[in-house]
Amino acid sequence: MREVIANYEDLMEMLDSLFREPTGFWDDFYSEREKRVPFFANVPDENLVSYFDCNLVRPGRVLELGCGPGRNAIYFAKQGCKVDAIDLSQESLDWAKERGSEENVEINFKKENIFKLEVEPDSYDIVYDSGCLHHIPPHRRISYINLVEKALKPGGYFGLTCFLPGGELGGANITDLEVYKQQSLKGGLGYSEDMLRSIFKDFKAIEIRNMKEVTQPNVFGVAGLLTALFQK
């Protein structure tokens, strides 16, 4: 990292340095596969399943941001999608590849920082994020929006699952200014419906709702998360 800001990327990287180094943290997190972490279960988000069941989205080319151990990427592939699944953690990708092989699905898993990711403009039908946005500091939000906008085809869909403020699994209810004063995301930022509508104001909101708490073993659904589907 440069210690003198000469361009926009220098500024972004200097602000990044105020927060924990993400790769090492997530490698450690995913190295203990037996931990009682709800989203370690190899089942897709209930909202994602509902998008297909209700014909809100159709099979196509998918970019998943922060795929973790691959549970949603595997679901997309089983629906007939061509999937590029991105994550910073090699530990999570190794696990995801094992699961994909067991499920006999073909997925392009790739280790990459999403802010260094090169994508062809208008190349994806769906961009999906389950749990990535709330771990991104506010200064990277514009880059995140630009990535989604660039990747999606006109009329393409952006699906999102994130912490609610004060949710059971996390969701710091602090302002962007407080993030920098405290130099911490407090485990992940919480987002309200109004915040998502404001941040993604250039997209059409198709559905924004709380994740449903479900008990059936074939989907993931817990309280404290907000789900959203937008269209470019």
From TrEMBL:
Give yes or no: UniProt keyword Methyltransferase: yes
Q: Which residues form the Methyltransferase domain?
A: 62-156
Q: Does the keyword Nucleotidyltransferase apply?
A: no
The record's listing under InterPro entries reads: Methyltransf_25, SAM-dependent_MTases_sf
Example GO biological process term? methylation
Species lineage? Bacteria, Bacillati, Bacillota, Bacilli, Bacillales
The protein here is known as Class I SAM-dependent methyltransferase
SUPFAM superfamilies from the entry? S-adenosyl-L-methionine-dependent methyltransferases
- Keywords, A to Z? Methyltransferase, S-adenosyl-L-methionine, Transferase
PANTHER family, sorted: METHYLTRANSFERASE (PTHR43464), UBIQUINONE BIOSYNTHESIS O-METHYLTRANSFERASE, MITOCHONDRIAL (PTHR43464:SF19)
State a single Gene Ontology molecular function: methyltransferase activity
